[in-house]
Queue: 4 jobs
Job 1
Amino acid sequence: MRLINVSSLQIEEFYGTDIPPYAILSHTWEATEASFQQWTKRVTRIRKFKHLGFEKIYAACKRARGNGLGYVWADTVCIDRTSSAELSEAINSMYAWYENAQVCYVYLSDVRIPSRESNLDVLTLFRRSRWFTRGWTLQELLAPSNIVFYTREWVQMGTKQALAVLIREITGIDEGCLRGTRRVTVCSVAQRMSWASRRVTTREEDITYSLLGIFGISMPLLYGEGSQNAFRRLQEEIIKVSDDQSILAFNTDSSDNTLLAHHPSDFASQGGVRPSFAPKLTPPFTMSNAGLSLTTPLIYTMSPYWVLAVLNCVELHWAQEDVRARSITCLPLLGRDKKFMRARAPVTLISLGVDLVGNQGTLRSKHIDSTPEVGGSDSDSNTALAESTSTIAKTTPLEIQDLTTRKDTDILVTYFSRIYPLYGTEMDEAMKGFEVIDVGPSMKIPDRGFMIAFPRGMGSYRYLDSFPKGDLYPNISFFMPSATPPTSTREKMEENRGNVTRGLLVYSHEMAGRFKPGFLEEIEIVGIYLALDSSTGNWTCRILDLERRISGPDLEHKWIVKGDEMVLDKPEEWPHYDQQRNMVVAARTRFETTKGHPCKEAIMVEIVFDLKELLKERDLEG
């Protein structure tokens, strides 16, 4: 390690434990900077004394002498950049050098003390400083424990600790990391990547190389390999030493790679992602020439080609200074037979809400005790249903926030070029609904719809039927109900509540026999009633107990009317959760689709058929 002697201004070299206490300079490079060759020539140092590249090093040496330090390190003159071997060693060591410095002087050449006539204050200029946009200065902000900021005139502005709140607002970096109360290594991979997502470097590979120390990675520098190859190598090295699956929590839509990210900017919106700290060890995942071998719980859909992988990380949602909600990060995957690639449509990541802070234990849905037989005339049906809705359970179960299974599945996540030859024709046919839905010449793509998911699988239940039939797209697991309530029902609703569309999904227990239209038989069936109200923007989900004697032609009207009578009044109070016997349905997560297909906004409906087993799992977790 080379250091500048602040008294003689000569460069001296030190090794290992012989390195003396030193100050370190952080700055942004200007058009003309001092070099190692120039600084070692005394005549050149004197002649260029007033040049900014030299002047700031002189000023840093003066500050160090005033702080009782004998040495200063500056990247421009302490590294011989004509030697590629030395440059590589320095870049791999730089985080440690900043971390071990007694003090770091941050020189902001574009922040001047404003004149009295200026409308700008120094903190406004501080926010706008170029120093916060450069790739290399991220590690220079994180590594040193003691940082002092200076203006162009070398007027002290404050320390990192004193300005931590402001710096957090500028950079998005965790305030604990800035104050030194939280180690950078505790932050998730996705969170650290997000800090670099809006930073730039002169050489394209440097946006990757500037992150080596932040992730504790050492690797060869290959200038000329391109930013994508460099960033891929960094991610592969991180996977070798970390079990943090948030490295997969990036926006696939901005990358044409179906496995790893192309650039830190793919993580721009992932600043709230944290390690999950689940009460179990994360199974190892490894990279090979076949792809990424991963062991994780899966959330299934109605499509045989589309699942959601539950990653071992959570996203925190903030309101002012408090965490208001926590969500699991789910990775949509396309493929089958445990071989998948990342999906780009209808969404690249889903944050599945599992913990509503401040709302736990709140009653959000009403539960019907009795379910009368529905039959006879329409008027008889409506009368019976009106009477049934007055019977409310005396006790209501609390919402179960996390419905996902704890059972892991071994899968391979690989590249498009490997998956498409295997299942391309079938996937194209099954998944085309993500691109085009035939809504007729006078209609438009729906604003909202439901995505149907089974966080614990379907067990012994099977899909039986739907109403309206044409509104369910099982191959993509989307349901866009378009049916409006009949006039007889709308008359019982409050005024201006006619902007409701609704539908019904019907499932049967396979052990109770198979449904055969036209035959009368006893089967166990259950209905999931879903409704949308465009006037309030609200939606609802309900479980309808439909265990009775039925025949095929009786599917549509009498089942859907029962749901209408239960929930259509007061849409602004509609619940997003229902629990009956051994079932749960929840619709608490909504997200925008990437390309507006098959609808502009999707509401994820989670259906659980084994509530008792779910509760046993949670009891074992304590």
Job 2
Amino acid sequence: MIEPDVENWLHNVNSIINETDELLQKKADNSGCSCFNPSLITRYKHGKKAFKLMKDNISPLLQEKRDMGTEMSYPVILQETWATPEKGYTPFESRESTLKEIVKALNDFNVNMIGVHGMPGVGKTTLVKEVLRQVEKDKLFDKMIFIEVTQTVETRMILTKLGNKLGMQLTNKDISEMKMRLHAQLKNMEEKILIIFDNVWEVPDLETTGILEAVDEGKCKVLLTTRGRDVLKRMGCKVFEIGILSEEESWRLFKNTAGPGHDFIKASEVESLAKDICKKCGRLPIAIVTLAKALKNECDPRQWEEALQQLNKSSRSNFEGALKMAYLSIELSYNYLRGEELKKTFLLCSLMSHQASTLDLVKYVLALDIFERFNTVEEALNKVHTLINELKGSCLLLDNQTNTSFSMHDFVREVALSIANRDDHAFSVRNEFDWEWPSQDKLEICEKIFIHDSIISDQLGDELECPKLESFFMNNNNSYVEIPEKFFSGMRKLKVLDLTGFRFSSLSSSLHLLVNLQTLSLKYGTFEDVTIIGKLKKLKILILQSSNVKQLPREIGHLTKLKLLDLSYCRKLEFIAPNVISSLFRLEELYMRKCFALWKDKGENVEQSNASLHELNHLSRLTALEIDIKVENIFPLDLFSKEMKRYKISIEDQSSSHCTLCTDREHWKIKSFDELETFRTVKLEHNSIIWSGRLRCFKNVEFLCLGKLQGIKNVLTGLDEEGFSQLKVLHVRDNPNILVYC
């Protein structure tokens, strides 16, 4: 929210802009006149008015802006996703009474904590969102904060989300300080708040965050959804149970989903089959919707007969009762996916994290050769986006309105993991304190291992014998774990190795035995020496993001098949051996944000000096680049010979200040952070260099931030004579000499 003084200042600025536009229009109207007519006098008058406008209005406004300082706005709480009616939401009679009772409980002064529980996929979240829309309409609360909780109750994540919704900046703080600040904020608030924790697995920490005290004082109420009734009992909640639908409601939901108007279902040969299939869904909404979607607008009775036959034949011992039928319906949706590429991608999605990165999925599919016809990262990324959209359309992935990440419904994931274990020889562990490796017989045929958020210190063993293993993922957020020296010696066919958050001091010596490795991801590692990685000659993707690596040695230059290199946020990286970057001639994507390596000037001739930015010119296949440069005089005039498809480039001097508006999507009225993150971005912050002609390869820039540029008075044509036709956001700051923006 913008401060009132700033609002007034902006109003005055807009008035001056309008006056300036009128003056420019008058000038344009006379621009075609001969110099031997009275237009000379007119031009003189216009110039005099412009000088007076600058002196009497623009200069004082610029001084006012400097006097304002940096605090010009404060965060606002964005509209929640539940505020918009759910697409395709169907009100059910069996739920209406529960909905009204929950609203009544929220009105009850004596009820402060309310819990909604039910089996996965039964519609708990959908019902609660409808409750919130009713509560908002009745204005029962001043603020409502919706927080989605994963299986691992991550305190920092919850605190950060709460802080953001309350207009607080809690990032980069330790947990205790975050709790203290949040506690103080809640204690001093006069507004009445409703906090919703969706999909709770364990009791969240309400005491040290100040939420419990706010509840006791009547300032705050808490609404939770969960699968387990015991969580709600331990919290002393008033409990509401959501059951499965009635047969009539199930059939109505099935028909509405399978096809608007559903005239084809009314055909005698289809209707009886459709009803039988609907019954097999066990009256579970998630199962009904996914299966009906798979058969949407299908008019051929044989397809319905085949679907029913598959439902009757299949059986899974670990899903009983209604869950068994729901499992079979989800499995049938999987069976109806078109092609092996889509099926393999779906199973791979289920093995990944709750809110997985699309780029992380790309690093798997490229190495595992799931897409046989695609050789470049860009092609694979486009294909992944297409398949993710298909899976969302089949209700097998959640439609979270973003292209950079994806997520999966809990129940759908459980079914997918069961299929992956059976068909894809996958072993997966999530959020387990006490777990064991499968038997050696199963390890012998295991092809994929994914260990998420689980205690691993005692489980590693000296060596893992998995001769057919192709993918290995394991993250560690809890303790220091050393990888045994021979740990990788029994997995020679490994193609993807992803170790996230490991705090080992050095890389295992058996790493060099992974001669077939194509993707290596070592995010947040505390190791410093990466020399051994240079022996992995088949490597296509190398991710060292946020690691403690200090040098990029000459050996990395041996990775001539590398297509993607991620060094972003490697803040300790200072030395890059000369000719390493230029040796990676197949490199398509290079990420070095917040990695301020000491690039040398091309003219330097010092032994053991750093690499030069000129080496980037040798990367003819480069299509994506993210880089921050802090020393202005080392940026070469001839850098980049062609336009790139994706980039974020920042060139600043050492004294440049951080620009917070560059990441403020609300300020630029951009719909989503995802959209802002995908903009082609150039940020220039320089005191001395005139940049005319240096941005020719960035004509497709979408977000341009300019600060402290000298010698430029016309922003766009001064930087490039042809301008920037795809520009969406222009941010100019600390440039009092700039008079024209187009």
Job 3
Amino acid sequence: MRLLPPLQILTPTPWGWKHCEQLSTSGLYMAGMSFSCAAASSPVHSVKGKACRWRRHISACHLTANSHPFKSLHGYFASPSSLQDHQVHSEADYSAGKIEELKKRVGFTLRTDIHSTRSMVLVDTIQRLGISHQFEDELELILDRNPSAAQGDEDDLFSTALRFRLLRQRGYNVDTDVFHKFMDRKGHFKESLSKDLAGLLSLHEASYLGVRDEEVLSQAMGFSEEHLRRSMLNLHPVRASEVNLALECPRQRRMVRSEARSYIGKYAQESGRISDVLQLATLDFKLVQSQLRIEIAVLRSWWKELGLAEKLSFARDRPLECFLWTVGLFPEPRFSQCRIEIAKTIAILLVIDDVYDIHGSLDELILFTDAVRRSWRVEAMEDLPEYMKICYMALYNTTNEIGYRVLKEHGRCIIPELRKTWVDLCEGFLVEARWFSGGVVPEMEEYVGNGVSTAGTYMAFVHAFYLIGSGVNKQSSDVVNSCPKLFTSAGRILRLWDDLGTAKVEQERGDVASSIDCYMKEGDGASEAEARLHVRSLIHSSWLDLNGEALAATSLPRSTVDAALNLARAAQAMYQHGDDDRLPSVDQHIHSLLIEPIPQDNHISEEARVGRTSEFTVHE
């Protein structure tokens, strides 16, 4: 077995960043060693298939959007061995030292007055800049140890809504009664609040943390949106743009790393910015981006040696986009290994999806589903066509590799749990294949329910839960393995955003009907535009469920809850361009998060400075 050189990974420690984890990867995992629950160890078998000449299809996928193939961007990412260059290490060491120095100063500021609105604003800024992982102790002090103390003394709309949002984001089910003082005797928000622009924006952001049957937050959303839209006519263009962004995509629904990249530039233009915070955010983003490039190099090497793209010419070759999904789900630096492993599973999922969608005959698909369902042995693939043997072995070996890693690092044998997720997924794919073969347009709920599984929702969450390993016990394992509503709600949002973003392309390639088609069938002649509006309303409704489940999921580790929320956020970021081409595309997200360096110096124009010293600075 040919091994790549050991790879230094930059990982965060309580003292900053250091080269503390080594990864070595076998180029071809199909030839490596893996673990099976039936025996302590067993060889992972390899299959060498003949080169295929099937026609290549243009495809839009369940877990990614169209973009350039991964190999077209490989020049941006150095090979693992070259990343051990002394200059890279020296630069990282300098950044780590500077980060530690800045952390101490910012941390002191955070701890100075933990009950004030000023402290809450700084917490919000730190989270938005993507550096909250640097201040876990301080966040615990301010938000966790005594949540009621975080209410502070200020009782204006801005402060109340901000505290409410931060605590709900942290998992505390704060009562909406805190907003009653801003309502009149008829139970409506006071019209005098319409002049408090900062308060309205804070209220609007807080309203998106609502759950079902919270009438106060439902009113807050409508009231704040109405008055914010009216105010835009009189705002400086910079502020108007900020308000418009909040209306189109509130903070609760933004992809974490994309928001960090975007807000670093905006924060540099704020008159009330804290220089240490800005410098820390810039250095941290740069260092995390370097770590992500290293992870991509590992993934690229694995994908190249696996050889699925070369053997199966009809299959999608997009592991970079698969990796972008994992950056969305697990943005914190400490989840490095999880990102790599989950990206592998998503890349294989897309290949299997293409087998079911565009290449396999129905009889062949039945054989493949039965092989995955009936056993977890190499012998199960004997009756499969040659191209399916390659898919089966890639799935079998990669799953066993992940199972072995979890056994080695956490002492748990979880092959049966991992396998079950693939059985559910393949059975869902087969259902869709039967619909397509029979020309069936299913009922909306039947389609969406099946689509939660075929989108890879359960598969990704279960694999990540065991790979991360924290908070895993019998109670949490039982919840995760039962496909909880937390996962289902996130999966519905993924499925529906997928349809909004890819339905047109999938129809062109002859894919199964989407939720848009299902509604047009059920809606007595509803137009496509009406169907899209309905799907958006379903997404909003699913967000209410997801928010509620996130607050109620006390038996699950916070990393799992955050991953569910982040999947819903990533789905919107990845698919919204297909629904509205004015919004960023997958390519743009890839370049901004993984390729383009962040500017070291942030120059502030006078126009921007004037635009950012208006109503929004009164609470700083």
Job 4
Amino acid sequence: MGLIEVAQNFTAIVCGSDVLIYNNRNSKNQKLDPVSDNENHENSKVKILNQDSIDEKHKNSKTQINDPFRKYESFNVSENQKAKEGNSNGGSSNKTNSLYSIVSVKASRDGQYLAIAFEEKSAVVWCTKTWTRLCIHRLVKRPMAIAITSDSSTLLVADKSGDVYSFPLKGSQPKDKQDRLSEQEKNEGKGEENQEENNEGEREKYQEKNNGEREKDREENNGEREKDQEENNRGEREKDQEENNKRGREKDQEENNKGGREKDQEENNKGEKEKEVTPVTPKPILGHLSMLLDMAITEDDKYIITCDRDEKIRVSHYPNSYNIVSFCLGHKEFVTQVELLPQNNNLLLSCSGDGTLILWDYLQGECLAELDTREYTPCDLLHMYEEDRKQNEKSESFKKFLPDFPGVKHFAVRSINATQHIVAVVLDRVPAILLFQIDVPNMTPIVVKELEDQPGEVAWLQSGELIHVHEFSRDIITVSELQNNDLKPVAEHPLVSLGRRCAGLFNGVYDGPDFDVLYKQQYDNVADYMKKKQKRLAVEKAAQDGIIVPFKKGRWS
């Protein structure tokens, strides 16, 4: 699913319709201090991204509703409690209903870009250096998983209908810097042309003044009385004319400047709008006959691996995905996640709704090891799942098919070396985290850590700790460390204090697709057939005994 993304310089945590971005630089054993309102957002260790966020140049605006760099101090536990109280009273939070949930986040391998897939059929790409939004890609269907190629050039999106599309990661820029410079030079040229026209008007003014002086000299020769009278009349007329011309020129200049500024502003706004929402035609890569649930691409960008609801894992060449390498068949229910082992890309790990983990040689389609989580899960941890099963059996209107054991919802892999790996597993509606160790090709259990409630997502930090999110716990973000084959919480970790400060954001967190919907429904048509057959045989026997009058079955009987 990808609701927690750990990159080299930052950690992205999905919380409903927002993404918390925490800066990983020098974060070990460092507490989060309050950030003042006048502090620059770029220096803050925490940023919040969402689809309604505005551009980087508006980040200092006073409007805080759509600001992508809101301070984490504005959300506290009291606001989270108010939101939960409103939901319990039959109301709902405006934030949860007004914005769409985030389905998945994915960072590029170099950590320079972050892609976010929204439930409302869109994918947004951010630049992690300046945290500016590069482009928005509109999708045909609801996205289920996203991936980024190793060269950070292509964004792959798997949707609900079973298709995979490719988009340019950065989008198609409508104007580059050279075009903007040429446009600016063009505007400057227009300004110089207007200035030359004004200078020409000034020259004409001085020329008229010189002509007046020559005429004045001729009048002095004709007589002093005419000279004085004509000078007075002409002086008054020239003065009035100059004032009128001056007012007219100033008015024309102001109108020209105003029109030019408005025109430039409209062009700039149009360019920014085109930059934000870039229409890009998606390129179809491959298609499945059922819903796609996850996707992975190898480090060399040679193969793309997809899994669907029909228990299949397909390995295809990239980008010519019509060339299928192999199918990995072995799961009995839908496959929820596929992931390549970090230090051994020749092996693939997958989990399914049947509660199993399978290690694959995906190029050969060969199962190397299989682990059934039901063998290592205590029965007392299945109370949440058993309660849902009982409610389902009591329902007379519609009964969903639920297996005897919950499926694997998510897992996270940490590599020790090329042959040794540690896997953290989360089961559906089970308040625990299961740890297993992979010694290729064997998988053995380490510990089953019982929790207060079901974790929504787990991920390994680069420092070796395990981070997991709990929506209804006091510590929404929990960090644990593996010591002596046991998970022990790290109380002073900065991400723990971050979860407490940002508790108001974690209201209605999306934790993946509903498993009850993914299980294929079973209908007992044989029972109805047997009832009809018994009724028909009873009628025939009654007719033979003379109890009822026999009737004809058809025209020829």
